[in-house]
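Internal tracking record. Fields below are filled automatically when a chain is submitted to the structure queue. Please do not edit lines marked as system-generated. If the sequence contains nonstandard residues, flag them in the REMARKS field before resubmitting.
Queue: standard
Priority: normal
Entity type: single polypeptide chain
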Amino acid sequence: GETLTQGTVGAVAVDGKRDLAAATSTGGMTNKMAGRVGDSPVVGAGTYAKNGTVAASATGAGEVFLRGAATATISDLIEFGGRDLAGAVYEVLVERLPRLGGTGGVIALNAQGVFDAPHSSEGMLHGYLTEDGRLVTKVFADESPANR
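SYSTEM-GENERATED OUTPUT FOLLOWS
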């Protein structure tokens, strides 16, 4: 089975001017091939932020996130495909990446403060702070109402 915690830590944020930011850090895969570069430090794969579309940080099968340009594709679906945040992240994480041979999850935030955290893996530990100061933490999507 898949582990729920994969050693990746990500953050997404929007400020008062509606500027977006994303960051991702990971310990990588245990017993990885020497010289392997994962998706976390690669802009457009494990991490991406573009004002007007999305701030996204990913975790999961790094090679698949690289091949699928996962986080940049989310942004492109919003910018060029006219998709909303939830539709774009769902398409990439649940439809596209598993067809490339891997699973994972993403935390994503847009300039309007809409947050989503879809995952094709079994679960993904994540949390968010609402504008009114409420802190929400979850592992599974159906644990509590989404922040939408």
